[in-house]
Amino acid sequence: MAATAVRYLRSVGAPTTGPVEALPRPQLRAVGDDERAPLDPGEFRRVLGNFATGVTVITAPPTQRDHPETGTQRTPTGPTGPAAPTGPAGFACQSFASLSLDPPLVSFMVARTSTTWPRIARAGVFCVNVLGADQGELCRGFAVSGADKFAGVEFDAAPVSGSPRLAGAAAWIDCTIQAVHTGGDHLIVVGRVDALGTADGETAPLLFHKGAFGRFTR
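The structure corresponding to this sequence follows.
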């Protein structure tokens, strides 16, 4: 499975030498229909929605690859011409977690169907922006597809990766992609932390619970 993820990273032009490695994995087999638990997807979401999480925006810097013959830009599915996305990439993400202290690693999960993930994979780096309590609308903007998510959004460059570091975020974590693992209909992305920091002063976090935003109170 890890080797499959590495082949995927290579297909989108992400660096696979150095920090990205194929880790040994147990051999897996497909689950038969008669082995699946009788879980209703709606009930699954309802129950798991009781787990309150923070909210992040995962960002990556612009990348550009030129077709060697035509000069048109390429995406993971082939040449697309001048209309290919060239700006920074980003998406809203709840499934973020710290993973390891030594070495410092974090992780996030992204749907295999995500159109933003191939651009992050191609960059090979990302920045986790931990959103503040007043950034619910900003989060909604990064949760939609097909729009310029960075229009009107204030940001600067993270110090190592150059990924967008969103103004007003409670914290930021600048990372290099370390490994990618498969997990059902999602990918599990592991990042090596290169730099991190918090906002000046005390910034309360944005929380998500049962489909709604909230805030932490002491």
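Residues 101 and 193 are 10 Å apart (CA to CA).
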